[in-house]
Amino acid sequence: MVQVSTATRSSLFGGLSDKEIQDLLDGGRVVTFQAGELIVRRGDQGDVMYFILSGLVEVIRVLGTDGPQFSRLALGEGEFFGEIAILLEGKARTANVVALEPATCLMMSKEGLERAVERYPMMALSMLRIMSKRLRALVP
């Protein structure tokens, strides 16, 4: 059985019982990545998103058209990535994501996410809070 950290429990799965968390884990696939491994490639079509159960990843996004400018964001336990490609169907990945250290993630399809949100609506609110914090960090 995969262990879910306190950080993940409080930020993303807050209020869910052990049985409910196990149900979420069963609705996806737990995958591991080594440090330096490319998890998501910008421009690829995406049909899954990832919930970070342990470890640290870096989201690297190319900005602007006047030469290379990069936005870098480190994400850790209790956070997620890859949601844009599955929430906005048919859209390509907007960034590269690389494991900064060994990372374990719950990989979930669009259908799996929809089932999870239907069963556990508080999870959707947690995701919205995390996404709102990211947006707020971008705006001065």
Structure overview:
The chain has 140 residues and is an alpha+beta fold. It has a single domain, classed as Jelly Rolls. The chain has helices at 6-11, 18-26, 83-87, 110-119, 121-138, and strands at 29-33, 38-40, 48-54, 56-63, 69-76, 80-81, 96-99, 103-109. Strands 1-8-3-6 form a four-stranded antiparallel β-sheet. Strand 4 and strand 5 (69-76) form a beta hairpin. The radius of gyration is 15 Å and the shape is globular. The protein starts with 5 loop residues before the first helix and ends with a helix. The mean pLDDT is 86.
Write the layout of secondary structure elements.
Blueprint: H1 6-11, H2 18-26, E1 29-33, E2 38-40, E3 48-54, E4 56-63, E5 69-76, E6 80-81, H3 83-87, E7 96-99, E8 103-109, H4 110-119, H5 121-138
Antiparallel strand pairs: 1-8, 2-7, 3-6, 3-8, 4-5, 4-7
Helix pairs in contact: 4-5
The stretches of 5 or more residues where confidence is low (pLDDT under 50) are none
Q: How would you sum up the major sheet?
A: 4 strands, antiparallel
Measured distance between first and last alpha carbons: 42 Å
Q: Which superfamily, in CATH terms, is the homologous superfamily?
A: Jelly Rolls
**CATH A-level architecture:** Sandwich
Key features of this structure:
four-stranded antiparallel β-sheet; Jelly Rolls; 5 helices; alpha+beta; 140 residues
Give a quick rundown of the structure:
This protein has 140 residues and is an alpha+beta fold. The protein has helices at residues 6-11, 18-26, 83-87, 110-119, 121-138; strands spanning 29-33, 38-40, 48-54, 56-63, 69-76, 80-81, 96-99, 103-109. The strands form two sheets. The chain has a four-stranded antiparallel sheet with strand order 1-8-3-6. Strands 2-7-4-5 form a four-stranded antiparallel sheet, with no helix packed on it.
